[in-house]
Amino acid sequence: MIIKPRTRGFICLTSHPEGTLQNIKNQIDYVKSKGKIKNGPKKVLVIGASTGFGIASRITAAFGSDAATIGVFFEKPAAEGKPGTAGWYNSAAFEKEAHASGLYAKSINGDAFSDEIKKQTIDLIKKDLGQIDLVVYSLASPRRTHPKTGVNYASVLKPIGQPFTNKTVDFHTGVVSDITINPVDNDEDIQNTIAVMGGEDWKFWMEDLKEAGVLAEGVKTVAYSYIGPELTYPIYRNGTIGKAKDDLEATVTTINKLLKDLNGISYVSVNKALVTQSSSAIPVVPLYISLLYKVMKQKGIHEGCIEQMQRLFAESLYSGEKISLDEKGRIRIDDLEMREDVQKEVAALWEQATTENLEAISDIEGYRNDFFNLFGFNFEEIDYDKDTNELVNVDSIQ
Ligand code: NAI
């Protein structure tokens, strides 16, 4: 079928299998160009492995460190006349490239929050890998069914305490407008968001993996967080999602205790703001990202997910040196985003940004391009007027 982008708000309803393959190949090429990571991980589980930071982590482990990888994700396969989701095609492309390079790669498609998927994953590790030495936790989800109680939780993206008014952009049209987001009016929304995006599920995974004996001596685990600038604090770090991130970050202490007798360790890495399916859903953030991209590209310090993950693995997690942490014990690969000169320039542009000057003062074009790239569109190597086979399978999923 011929597949063109079909968008609804911040969602793209279609994905292109050849374009996503191109996207994965570009990321693999980048990791290869950086050379092998000395003493990198060898047997890796990535939870949330199909898009954004998760697929970039998987690519870095596989192609930067020759690691065997198991990826867990929740994606829709293709059906006749109906393209699969981008994460489905990404995973198909990843496995194809990994297998062609002689690397072990298998995937599990299902709800990572459930006990059943945890069990399936553990069985697969036992059967094929024995033990794993790195667990990457990169889930981003709007809802979670609790595996023990069956309660369904939905997360909300809201400020706490007072309404938040600021600029936002519709990145398709470039219209900059003011938006007011009302605060949560009950504690339940905060607790629900923590239940979805906080640390409990990460802890459940680590407990189950440990109990099954599939964690190797010296195992590492890492989950991802975000802080960002003051101007997004009300909607992000001081909002409902920020409470969930506080909870995720606090889980490090619990997991460290759990892993102590294995000499294992857990980290949270604070990553840079980037265009992913999750971040495009947060009001205000797309305008910030398009201004940030402009400033960071001008300074020659822009990074995407793959550059961030390659740096995290090579220069932090597996650098062989003492890992540098902030005062709260977090890895900070958002260091370039948070540099004083960068933030000062972004803040000045923020004051000026209007619909009229947006194309000139921001990198809204780069934002859009990254957004369409997520779904395999806007790659010059691909002829989008040509018929393509939408029925692409992930090798290991029958
Ligand atoms: P994403 O939306 O690109 O990826 C989410 C992944 O989770 C996908 O692989 C998806 O299949 C998987 N997933 C969602 N629900 C699932 C379920 N029930 N079962 C199994 N898999 C499921 O998100 P992104 O942006 O890569 O986020 C990953 C982590 O990085 C999150 O913790 C996020 O907060 C964090 N982060 C994101 C930043 C950004 O700017 N995008 C910045 C800093 C941190």
TrEMBL record:
EC code: 1.3.1.9
Binding site for NAD(+): 48-53, 74-75, 111-112, 139-140, 245, 274-276
Every Trans-2-enoyl-CoA reductase-like NAD(P)H binding domain range: 2-79
Pathway involvement of the protein, from the record: Lipid metabolism; fatty acid biosynthesis
Residues spanning the membrane: none
Annotated site residue numbers, Plays an important role in discriminating NADH against NADPH: E75
Function statement: Involved in the final reduction of the elongation cycle of fatty acid synthesis (FAS II). Catalyzes the reduction of a carbon-carbon double bond in an enoyl moiety that is covalently linked to an acyl carrier protein (ACP).
Subunit structure: Monomer.
PANTHER family according to UniProt: ENOYL-[ACYL-CARRIER-PROTEIN] REDUCTASE [NADH]
Descriptive protein name: Enoyl-[acyl-carrier-protein] reductase [NADH]
